[in-house]
Amino acid sequence: MSLINVERIKLFSTRSPWWCMIIAAALSIGLAALATGLASGADELQVTPAMSQFGVNLGQMVIMVMAALAVTTEYRFGTIRTSFQAVPQRVALLLNKTFVVAGLAALVGLIASWGSWAVGYLLAGNADMAINTAAEWRLLFGQALVYGIAAIFAVAVGILIRQSAGAIAILILWPLLVENLLTLIPRIGDDLQKWSPFTNANQFINGGQDMGLAGGDSAGPSTGLDPWWALVYFAAWGVGLLVIALFTASKRDA
Protein backbone atom coordinates (compact mmCIF):
# COMPACT_ATOMS: atom_id res chain seq x y z
CA MET A 1 0.00 0.00 0.00
CA SER A 2 2.92 2.37 0.66
CA LEU A 3 4.06 2.12 -2.96
CA ILE A 4 0.58 3.04 -4.15
CA ASN A 5 0.60 6.11 -1.90
CA VAL A 6 4.04 7.09 -3.16
CA GLU A 7 2.95 6.83 -6.78
CA ARG A 8 -0.23 8.74 -6.05
CA ILE A 9 1.75 11.56 -4.46
CA LYS A 10 4.23 11.64 -7.34
CA LEU A 11 1.43 11.72 -9.90
CA PHE A 12 -0.45 14.60 -8.30
CA SER A 13 2.67 16.60 -7.44
CA THR A 14 2.88 17.89 -11.02
CA ARG A 15 0.43 20.00 -12.99
CA SER A 16 0.16 17.87 -16.12
CA PRO A 17 -2.21 15.21 -14.66
CA TRP A 18 -4.56 17.90 -13.38
CA TRP A 19 -4.62 19.69 -16.73
CA CYS A 20 -5.06 16.43 -18.64
CA MET A 21 -8.01 15.39 -16.47
CA ILE A 22 -9.68 18.79 -16.82
CA ILE A 23 -9.12 18.88 -20.58
CA ALA A 24 -10.35 15.30 -21.06
CA ALA A 25 -13.57 15.93 -19.15
CA ALA A 26 -14.16 19.36 -20.69
CA LEU A 27 -13.48 18.09 -24.21
CA SER A 28 -15.81 15.12 -23.80
CA ILE A 29 -18.66 17.10 -22.25
CA GLY A 30 -18.19 20.11 -24.53
CA LEU A 31 -18.35 18.04 -27.71
CA ALA A 32 -21.36 16.18 -26.30
CA ALA A 33 -23.12 19.51 -25.89
CA LEU A 34 -22.20 20.47 -29.45
CA ALA A 35 -23.29 17.17 -30.98
CA THR A 36 -26.58 16.80 -29.15
CA GLY A 37 -27.36 20.50 -29.38
CA LEU A 38 -26.94 20.61 -33.15
CA ALA A 39 -28.71 17.28 -33.64
CA SER A 40 -31.67 18.31 -31.52
CA GLY A 41 -32.03 21.38 -33.70
CA ALA A 42 -32.28 19.15 -36.78
CA ASP A 43 -34.45 16.36 -35.44
CA GLU A 44 -34.37 15.99 -31.68
CA LEU A 45 -36.36 12.74 -31.76
CA GLN A 46 -33.38 10.98 -33.37
CA VAL A 47 -30.90 11.99 -30.67
CA THR A 48 -29.69 8.93 -28.74
CA PRO A 49 -27.41 8.29 -25.72
CA ALA A 50 -24.69 7.11 -28.11
CA MET A 51 -24.58 10.53 -29.72
CA SER A 52 -23.71 12.10 -26.38
CA GLN A 53 -20.44 10.13 -26.37
CA PHE A 54 -19.17 11.93 -29.46
CA GLY A 55 -16.17 13.47 -27.69
CA VAL A 56 -15.31 10.75 -25.18
CA ASN A 57 -12.80 9.08 -27.52
CA LEU A 58 -10.87 12.34 -27.80
CA GLY A 59 -10.90 12.61 -24.03
CA GLN A 60 -9.39 9.14 -23.96
CA MET A 61 -6.49 10.37 -26.10
CA VAL A 62 -5.76 13.09 -23.54
CA ILE A 63 -5.79 10.57 -20.69
CA MET A 64 -3.39 8.34 -22.61
CA VAL A 65 -1.05 11.31 -22.89
CA MET A 66 -1.32 11.78 -19.12
CA ALA A 67 -0.52 8.11 -18.53
CA ALA A 68 2.52 8.22 -20.79
CA LEU A 69 3.81 11.42 -19.16
CA ALA A 70 3.54 9.77 -15.73
CA VAL A 71 6.40 7.53 -16.87
CA THR A 72 8.38 9.53 -19.42
CA THR A 73 8.78 12.62 -17.22
CA GLU A 74 10.53 10.47 -14.61
CA TYR A 75 12.97 9.25 -17.26
CA ARG A 76 13.39 12.79 -18.60
CA PHE A 77 14.36 14.31 -15.25
CA GLY A 78 16.18 11.23 -13.97
CA THR A 79 13.95 10.73 -10.94
CA ILE A 80 13.28 7.16 -12.07
CA ARG A 81 16.83 6.28 -10.95
CA THR A 82 16.07 7.49 -7.43
CA SER A 83 12.84 5.49 -7.45
CA PHE A 84 14.64 2.33 -8.54
CA GLN A 85 17.31 2.84 -5.86
CA ALA A 86 14.62 3.22 -3.20
CA VAL A 87 12.66 0.22 -4.54
CA PRO A 88 15.03 -2.27 -6.19
CA GLN A 89 12.07 -4.38 -7.31
CA ARG A 90 11.40 -2.43 -10.48
CA VAL A 91 8.44 -4.54 -11.56
CA ALA A 92 6.62 -3.90 -8.28
CA LEU A 93 7.26 -0.16 -8.53
CA LEU A 94 6.04 0.09 -12.13
CA LEU A 95 3.02 -2.12 -11.44
CA ASN A 96 1.93 0.18 -8.63
CA LYS A 97 2.42 3.19 -10.91
CA THR A 98 0.29 1.48 -13.55
CA PHE A 99 -2.41 0.67 -10.99
CA VAL A 100 -2.64 4.29 -9.82
CA VAL A 101 -2.68 5.74 -13.34
CA ALA A 102 -5.19 3.20 -14.66
CA GLY A 103 -7.49 3.71 -11.67
CA LEU A 104 -7.45 7.46 -12.16
CA ALA A 105 -8.06 7.05 -15.89
CA ALA A 106 -11.07 4.81 -15.22
CA LEU A 107 -12.53 7.43 -12.88
CA VAL A 108 -12.09 10.16 -15.49
CA GLY A 109 -13.70 7.90 -18.09
CA LEU A 110 -16.72 7.44 -15.85
CA ILE A 111 -17.02 11.19 -15.28
CA ALA A 112 -16.61 11.92 -18.98
CA SER A 113 -19.21 9.39 -20.13
CA TRP A 114 -21.89 10.20 -17.57
CA GLY A 115 -21.18 13.93 -17.73
CA SER A 116 -21.59 13.81 -21.51
CA TRP A 117 -24.83 11.89 -21.20
CA ALA A 118 -26.16 14.35 -18.61
CA VAL A 119 -25.42 17.31 -20.88
CA GLY A 120 -27.02 15.48 -23.80
CA TYR A 121 -30.06 14.73 -21.67
CA LEU A 122 -30.46 18.42 -20.85
CA LEU A 123 -30.04 19.59 -24.44
CA ALA A 124 -31.92 16.86 -26.29
CA GLY A 125 -35.38 18.25 -25.59
CA ASN A 126 -38.05 15.63 -26.28
CA ALA A 127 -35.61 12.94 -27.43
CA ASP A 128 -35.53 9.64 -25.55
CA MET A 129 -32.18 9.80 -23.73
CA ALA A 130 -33.15 7.24 -21.10
CA ILE A 131 -30.79 4.31 -20.56
CA ASN A 132 -33.06 1.44 -21.57
CA THR A 133 -30.87 -1.32 -22.98
CA ALA A 134 -27.88 -3.37 -21.88
CA ALA A 135 -25.90 -1.87 -24.77
CA GLU A 136 -26.56 1.64 -23.46
CA TRP A 137 -25.49 0.69 -19.93
CA ARG A 138 -22.35 -0.83 -21.45
CA LEU A 139 -21.80 2.38 -23.40
CA LEU A 140 -21.72 4.55 -20.27
CA PHE A 141 -20.08 2.30 -17.69
CA GLY A 142 -17.81 0.68 -20.28
CA GLN A 143 -15.93 3.91 -20.89
CA ALA A 144 -14.29 3.49 -17.48
CA LEU A 145 -12.96 0.07 -18.51
CA VAL A 146 -11.69 1.33 -21.85
CA TYR A 147 -10.04 4.39 -20.28
CA GLY A 148 -8.34 2.20 -17.68
CA ILE A 149 -7.03 -0.30 -20.22
CA ALA A 150 -5.94 2.50 -22.56
CA ALA A 151 -3.94 3.95 -19.65
CA ILE A 152 -2.20 0.59 -19.15
CA PHE A 153 -1.42 0.61 -22.86
CA ALA A 154 0.00 4.14 -22.56
CA VAL A 155 2.13 3.37 -19.49
CA ALA A 156 3.63 0.40 -21.30
CA VAL A 157 4.48 2.53 -24.32
CA GLY A 158 6.00 5.15 -22.01
CA ILE A 159 8.21 2.53 -20.33
CA LEU A 160 9.37 1.19 -23.69
CA ILE A 161 9.94 4.52 -25.47
CA ARG A 162 10.99 6.66 -22.47
CA GLN A 163 10.76 9.85 -24.54
CA SER A 164 7.58 11.92 -24.11
CA ALA A 165 7.33 13.11 -27.71
CA GLY A 166 7.81 9.66 -29.20
CA ALA A 167 5.40 7.96 -26.81
CA ILE A 168 2.69 10.60 -27.31
CA ALA A 169 3.08 10.45 -31.10
CA ILE A 170 2.58 6.68 -31.08
CA LEU A 171 -0.40 6.82 -28.72
CA ILE A 172 -2.20 9.46 -30.78
CA LEU A 173 -1.34 8.34 -34.29
CA TRP A 174 -1.96 4.62 -33.76
CA PRO A 175 -5.69 4.71 -32.90
CA LEU A 176 -6.55 7.80 -34.93
CA LEU A 177 -4.55 7.14 -38.09
CA VAL A 178 -2.62 3.88 -38.35
CA GLU A 179 -5.52 1.50 -37.63
CA ASN A 180 -7.68 3.32 -40.17
CA LEU A 181 -4.97 3.12 -42.84
CA LEU A 182 -4.47 -0.62 -42.42
CA THR A 183 -7.34 -1.25 -44.85
CA LEU A 184 -5.18 0.18 -47.64
CA ILE A 185 -2.87 -2.84 -47.44
CA PRO A 186 -3.88 -5.28 -50.21
CA ARG A 187 -5.51 -8.58 -49.19
CA ILE A 188 -4.71 -8.53 -45.48
CA GLY A 189 -5.61 -4.92 -44.64
CA ASP A 190 -9.17 -5.61 -43.52
CA ASP A 191 -8.06 -8.50 -41.30
CA LEU A 192 -5.29 -6.43 -39.76
CA GLN A 193 -7.73 -3.69 -38.87
CA LYS A 194 -10.24 -6.19 -37.48
CA TRP A 195 -7.64 -7.48 -35.02
CA SER A 196 -6.26 -4.08 -34.04
CA PRO A 197 -6.60 -3.17 -30.34
CA PHE A 198 -8.44 0.13 -30.51
CA THR A 199 -10.80 -1.11 -33.20
CA ASN A 200 -11.89 -3.77 -30.71
CA ALA A 201 -12.21 -1.16 -27.96
CA ASN A 202 -14.55 0.73 -30.26
CA GLN A 203 -16.47 -2.50 -30.92
CA PHE A 204 -16.97 -2.95 -27.17
CA ILE A 205 -18.29 0.58 -26.71
CA ASN A 206 -20.29 1.09 -29.89
CA GLY A 207 -21.31 -2.42 -30.91
CA GLY A 208 -25.10 -2.62 -31.12
CA GLN A 209 -25.63 1.05 -30.33
CA ASP A 210 -28.34 3.18 -31.91
CA MET A 211 -26.36 6.02 -33.49
CA GLY A 212 -29.46 8.12 -34.20
CA LEU A 213 -28.89 10.71 -36.89
CA ALA A 214 -25.62 9.03 -37.81
CA GLY A 215 -27.60 5.98 -38.95
CA GLY A 216 -26.98 2.30 -38.42
CA ASP A 217 -26.60 0.27 -35.29
CA SER A 218 -22.91 0.81 -34.64
CA ALA A 219 -20.05 3.17 -35.39
CA GLY A 220 -16.79 2.17 -37.00
CA PRO A 221 -15.69 -1.16 -38.47
CA SER A 222 -17.00 -4.33 -36.88
CA THR A 223 -14.49 -6.90 -35.66
CA GLY A 224 -16.96 -9.76 -35.68
CA LEU A 225 -16.44 -10.31 -31.95
CA ASP A 226 -19.08 -10.03 -29.25
CA PRO A 227 -18.57 -6.67 -27.47
CA TRP A 228 -17.36 -8.27 -24.24
CA TRP A 229 -14.92 -10.53 -26.10
CA ALA A 230 -13.70 -7.44 -27.94
CA LEU A 231 -12.96 -5.88 -24.53
CA VAL A 232 -11.08 -9.01 -23.44
CA TYR A 233 -9.03 -8.83 -26.64
CA PHE A 234 -8.25 -5.14 -26.06
CA ALA A 235 -7.26 -5.91 -22.46
CA ALA A 236 -4.99 -8.72 -23.67
CA TRP A 237 -3.16 -6.22 -25.85
CA GLY A 238 -2.70 -3.85 -22.94
CA VAL A 239 -1.55 -6.51 -20.48
CA GLY A 240 0.70 -8.18 -23.04
CA LEU A 241 2.40 -4.90 -23.91
CA LEU A 242 2.81 -4.11 -20.20
CA VAL A 243 4.47 -7.48 -19.57
CA ILE A 244 6.95 -6.77 -22.37
CA ALA A 245 7.59 -3.28 -20.98
CA LEU A 246 8.16 -4.56 -17.43
CA PHE A 247 10.55 -7.24 -18.65
CA THR A 248 12.46 -4.65 -20.66
CA ALA A 249 12.63 -2.20 -17.75
CA SER A 250 13.99 -4.88 -15.42
CA LYS A 251 16.81 -5.74 -17.85
CA ARG A 252 18.12 -2.39 -19.07
CA ASP A 253 19.72 0.58 -17.34
CA ALA A 254 17.48 3.36 -16.07
TrEMBL record:
Pfam families: ABC2_membrane_4. It comes from Kribbella lupini. The chain crosses the membrane at residues 18-38, 58-77, 98-124, 144-161, 168-188, 228-249. Signal peptide: none annotated. Keywords: Membrane, Transmembrane, Transmembrane helix. This is ABC transporter permease.
